[in-house]
Structures are given as structure tokens and as C-alpha cells.
Amino acid sequence: MNIRIDKAGNTPIFVQICNQLRQQIRSGVLVPGERLPSMNQLAIMLDISRETVKKAYNALVRDNLLTAWQGKGIYVAAKDGTRFREILVLLDKQSVYNQIILRNFQETLEGNAHITILQHNQDVDLLEYYLTHNLDLYDYYVVSPHFPLDAQTQARATKIISRIPARKLIMLDNWLRGIPGDYGVVYQDFRNDAAQGLACARADILRWGGNLKVIVLPRSLYGNLILESVKDFARETGIRLSVFRSIPETWNPGDVALVLNSQLDSGLVELDASIRSAGLVPGKDVKIISYNEMPLNELVMGGLTVLSTDFPAMGRTAADMILSGTRSKVHNPFRLIRRKSFLPVPDSRSR
Q1: Which of 27, 189, 195, 341 could bond 233 through an S-S bridge, CB–CB 3.0 to 4.6 Å?
Q2: Measuring CA to CA, how many Å separate 247 from each of 102, 234, 261, 308?
Q3: For 335, phi and psi rounded to 5 degrees?
Q4: pLDDT tens by residue, 132-172
Q5: Which CATH code, of 3.40.50.970, 2.60.120.10, 1.10.10.10, 3.40.50.1000, is assigned to 13-76?
Q6: Model confidence, pTM
């Protein structure tokens, strides 16, 4: 921001400030969400009275070009002319998936919100600390409520998040259903999504021999819930299911491996090595499906097939709730994304 005033001119100083700030906002020099100097700071910078700065700022606030946020300062207003929305995002951890959600959330809200991001690390003590110190300071609280699944931790997390007024709360990726009220949620259904996604692969798994090996790695918070959904799928289709808590050593041609890992990490490296040590080719002799989509999946194993929620859509949907002022419970889209590691087998009758 660059303001020059002419103290000897005929135009009142507060009008000079207004005109220059208005021009800089409309030309894009000052962008929505940008914080301006405080009244005292600008008065010192321009060697004028604080009352003159206050008069200029108040005029621009009335024109919906600036927004004043109690205790936080003066900001360039949102693009739609409304007061700039203040949002606190409480993510559970750093992950590729959270980065994708957050990027789409921020892009959808661009020019209409100021976003503060904190990380609770799946620690209810840290969550409680953050909310205790920030409960009345924001318009919206976007929380990813991923915590250990024991009853005590879940009950405590539910109680803490319930302190947020329902009209300000949006839960992201997981739904703590014990929280009452008319709040927003964009969620995965960890108990049922996998069965629906695998239904698209049923014919191929049966054609290859009907053997599905599910590998539940310890890093998967919801692995056991997802496993119950896979068991439903197996019971309904007659597919033979084997469950492993580590990478199995024995493989046969036609096996299908489903890896329930929470991140693209060493689990897939170990899986690839195990299949090759059996003299088989991953993606050809043994088909592979992983859980959760990420950009690198297009490169891993020549193209890794995944069962996944639509993380970009999750971020956009949460942002749209804020922009529209609506609150709803949205089951986020979930699908099977086929790549080279699980390509369908051509039907011999069609040859």
C-alpha cells in the first residue's frame, strides 16, 4: 500500500486517503483479505491525526470496500462486498489428502475469507486448547475430527466440538454423529463406502479366481471399519477373503490385493517386493488396489488403482456451504479409479 497526501491541497486529507485506497482495491493492488495498517500506524506513517485515518477507514467500511474485525484489524473486504469471513481450520495432521482438501477449499473461497489453519495431531488435549482460546473469534470452524476410536476419546472429542455453535461448525471427512444441531458435514462413510466401490470390480475379481487379500496396515486409523465394509462385499458376492496385518509372503496368479494404508508409503514398496519374490508381476499376475487417491498414484506401479473419496470435491463442498450460508450433511462421492494395476480382463466371448 502506498499513499501520498497533499496537506496544502484543497481536497480533505481523509478524502485523499479514501480515493487512493479505493483505486488500489479496484485495480487489484490491494487484494481481498489483505490487512491494512492500523489507524495508529497509518497516522504515524502519514504524519496526520488518528481521527483523520479513522474517518477514511469508516467511509470505506460503509462502502463495503474494507471490513473491520474486532481485535484483528482492518482488511480489504470480500469480493462480494460482504464482511470478510474469518475461518479457523482445525486439521488432524499433515497429509497429502489434507493438502488436496485445503487447496480446493482455499481456491473456492478465494477473495471471500481469511483462513487460519491449526493442526491438532489427533490429540484431544490440543483440540481443547485451540477451541478454548479461539471459540468466539471466528465466523466458521472447519474441523477434521479424526481421533483414536476408543469410546473415551470419541466421547471427549464429541463433547469438545459440541462447544462450537452449530451455525459455525463444519465437520470435514469424518462425522461425529453424537454432536447435536444444524451444522454442516462433508464426510466419508468408512463403514460402507468400500463395499459400494468394490462392487464395480466384482466381475473382474471373480473372473480372476475370486481371491481377495486385504492388507490392513497399522497406520490406517479406520482400517478395521473399512475391513467390515469389505467383508460385507465378500459375503454378498461369494468372493474368498483373506485378511493380513502385514504384507503376506505367499501369492498366486489371479490374486487381488487391497491395501488399506493411510498414506502412500513403505507398505506398497514391501507389497511390490513380496509379489516379485514369488516370481509374479505386480499389476499383471497379481492385481492391486490401494485406498485413497493422490496425484502420485498415476505414476506408482505404472498407475495404481484406488478406492477413494473425492478429496477435491470435499474441499469445494465445505467452501460452498460457507459462501451460501447453508448447512447440510453431505456424503462425499466415493469411487473406484481404475489404472494399470487393476485393468479389467477382456471377456473372451467378445473377442
Answers
A1: 195
A2: 32, 20, 11, 21
A3: -155, 165
A4: 999 988 999 999 999 999 999 999 999 999 999 999 999 99
A5: 1.10.10.10
A6: 0.77
